[in-house]
Amino acid sequence: MSSPALRSNAPRIPTDVQAWAFGDESRPPFRLPHLPVYSLGVNLSVVLITRNEESNLARTLESVRPLVREGQGEIIVVDSGSTDRTVEIAKSFGAQVFVEEWKGFAAQKNSAIEKATGDWILSLDGDEELSQGARQIIEKIFEAGSQKYAAVAGVWFPRKNHFLGRWIQHGGFYPDRKLRLFRRGQAQFPARAVRETASTTGRTLVADHDFALGKDIALIHHSYPTISDYIEHMNRYSSLGADLAVTEGRTGFGVINITLRPLLTFVYNYFFRLGFLDGREGLLLHLYHAVYVSWKYVKVWERQHARKS
Fold it and tell me: Rounded to whole angstroms, how far apart are CA atoms 35 and 179?
């Protein structure tokens, strides 16, 4: 999961490419360069990293079950020492489970990718699930006889982030696109402490909406069901963000960083990016996100002060 700002840097593709790729025959086709056509029986590997995801994992795996049924694919789970029923639930869905020490988000996810054997890889977090529309997009890409995606290396999906049970649609939290479906060997997660997102040098598509199917397409992210969950995550991510900031040589304690920057962050996301349209949940989320920003820079100062001492 990325930092709370959840800003997307997903590359956009021309409208005519999206329309052609997703079945809008009213526009002329965009000619892709010639590449080898993959076999009709495309094999999918669903990969996840987990730790104590008992409350989420069954929902996640149930959403991908149609994509891997009857030997069409596999589920790879790399667990970092769960003490609840996470491993048991994963195995009940036929997943291959590998228990490894925690190496960091990017390294852990790359370890899961390395174990995959499918032509395509779908990387999910333990608290995410595929919407019906997202699943149908993947099935459309894999359908027998389809050659229009032969040159595509990956697909970006929008993500719906839920806070206290509400989908947060504004304030920079949507569409929060993530590159989660990609060909094996053509993407990996860069070594970053936070904001880990797969990257590829190949051609990608942005699957916002498949108008031919008329279905909503998204990853559904059940990120913060309770305030306690949010505070716990923000404490951890502010520490990771502080480590990254120190590595980049950024400063910490100061009036601007501790007070003014959090205030401006709240004003920008809540008012200018329309976060107030998400009701009480939007107000709480952006208030606490401003606190997260202050925490991060206090921790930067704390680390720098400890080094000097």
Answer: 22
pTM of the model: 0.82
Per the listing, tokens 């502080």 go with: 242
Give the H or E element holding residue 298. Answer: helix 279-308
Give the three-state DSSP class for 280. helix
The SS3 assignment for 103 reads coil
Residue 88 has pLDDT above 80, yes or no: yes
- Given a contact cutoff of 8 angstroms between Cβ atoms, the answer to whether 259 and 297 are in contact is no
Question: Which two tokens mark 155?
Answer: 């697909």
Q: What DSSP assignment string belongs to 74-102?
A: EEEEEES--SSSHHHHHHHTT-EEEE---
Is omega for the bond preceding 175 within 30 degrees of 0, making it cis? yes
Which is more confidently placed, 104 or 250?
104
Domain 15-222 is classified in which CATH homologous superfamily? Spore Coat Polysaccharide Biosynthesis Protein SpsA; Chain A (3.90.550.10)
**C-alpha R_g of the chain:** 20
Location of structure tokens 């809540």: 270
Query: Nearest to residue 149, comparing CAs of 219, 217, 203?
Result: 203
The angle subtended at Cα 44 by Cα 41 and Cα 46, nearest 5°, is 165
Q: Can you give the residue ranges of every domain in the chain?
A: 15-222, 226-308
